[in-house]
Amino acid sequence: MKKITITITISLLIILSSNPGFCQDAYTMIQKMDQLMQAPKDKQGNVKIILSNLKSGKIKEREAIMKQKGKDKRLYQYTKPESQAGIATLSLPDGVMWMYMPAFGKPKKISLLSKSQAFTGTDFSYEDMESKSYSERYIASFLEEEDNTYALELVPKSDKSKYSKIIAHLDKIDNYPVLMEYFDNGNKKFKEATYKYKFSGQYWYAEEVVMTDLKKEHSTTIEMKDVKFDQGLSDDEFTVESLVPPKEEK
Shortest CA distance to 243 belongs to which of 48, 78, 49? Predict the structure, then answer.
């Protein structure tokens, strides 16, 4: 009888130890993803943005410069085409976001309600582009183990979110996201984002992200090129005042 009990106990321990929910909780896993994304002291790169109408096949392209410092300061400045040049967005600590458009003449703060709107006409929302970490914004729970990923359910802490939940599929080895599925407040999936991560120097970064709006049959691809890390970017580059080009300051 003792032998049977010992055998059953050992078998249960083996099963449980192979379950990531036993070894580490979902919150720890999402924290590891945050740490991977926020590891560089700073980051800068050239961004190519491709807007694709999946119905008609029409494509529009834009270019921008992206700068990030620490985990909660991020700046996008559009350079092409001419109609978009000068538009800039700034993410700051505590979920604060600012936007500058030449037509406005001065930066405008983005409200919580506005964060559900499209980020400069793309399939990303301002909420998607927030620099605030996932572990701060979502309550995570483990769903299942897949072939190469772990699936987590992320429920927004804020009732202002346009999402009821996000299903995040994280790489088993390195913890970067491979796929994120977005569900509306009716609990229907309406968007998904696929990721291609690249290791450069000592850091992982998202070389390509494709956000697809399943309802609108439209997608936005963001490609990061010429990425540089730990250049010592100044805090002065991440101020509201810096959004306005010098020649347009009044």
Answer: 78
